[in-house]
Amino acid sequence: MTSRRAAWAVGLMLLLAGTARAGMTSRQAIERAYATQAEAASLRFVPGMLSIRTPDFQAFDPDGHAVDLAGERQQYQRLLEQAVQVTDAVHVLAFRPMGAERAFCQAQETLDLVQLTDCTPVLQRFTALSVDEWVLTPRGWKLRRSRVLNQTLTKPGGPPPQIKP
């Protein structure tokens, strides 16, 4: 692990530990957790991306097929291993608290990956609309379940993206 990733991981743990006590609303804390995932994605740091999930996390694709936390880890590792640049953004479209320790979000995620194909940068864009179940744990808000309603993979046209150092 690089020193930048190690420093980021320590900062992430401190942030997540303090989120529930920092006076944030549950929606703000959950939006911050999504932002933490996005930052980890930009570093291609899979453990950071998964740190917002509970140990019993499950994701369901539009066909109802389930994947657990280990499966999610494998998918992200496979997806990110060839990427030279990653940008992730999640927007909460709707939020519904269910008591003090549970909430549901409708979220739109856009994950842009720049991969090299024959030494040419190629942008792939994954988008997904999901309904996510969040629970308040002693370590802050964590994602327990995600049901993807629809997802797409596109390769936008236009000039090749510029790779950021």
Short summary of the structure?
The protein has helices spanning 3-19, 26-42, 46-50, 69-80; strands spanning 53-60, 66-68, 83-97, 102-117, 120-137, 140-154.
Q: How would you characterize the overall build of this protein?
A:
This protein has helices at residues 3-19, 26-42, 46-50, 69-80; strands at 53-60, 66-68, 83-97, 102-117, 120-137, 140-154. The protein is an alpha+beta fold and 165 residues long. Strands 2-1-6-5-4-3 form a 6-stranded mixed β-sheet. Helix 1 (3-19) packs antiparallel against helix 2 (26-42). The longest helix has 17 residues, at 3-19.
Q: What separation lies between the terminal Cα atoms?
A: 18 Å
Q: How many distinct beta strands?
A: 6
Morphology = globular
What is the H/E order? HHHEEHEEEE
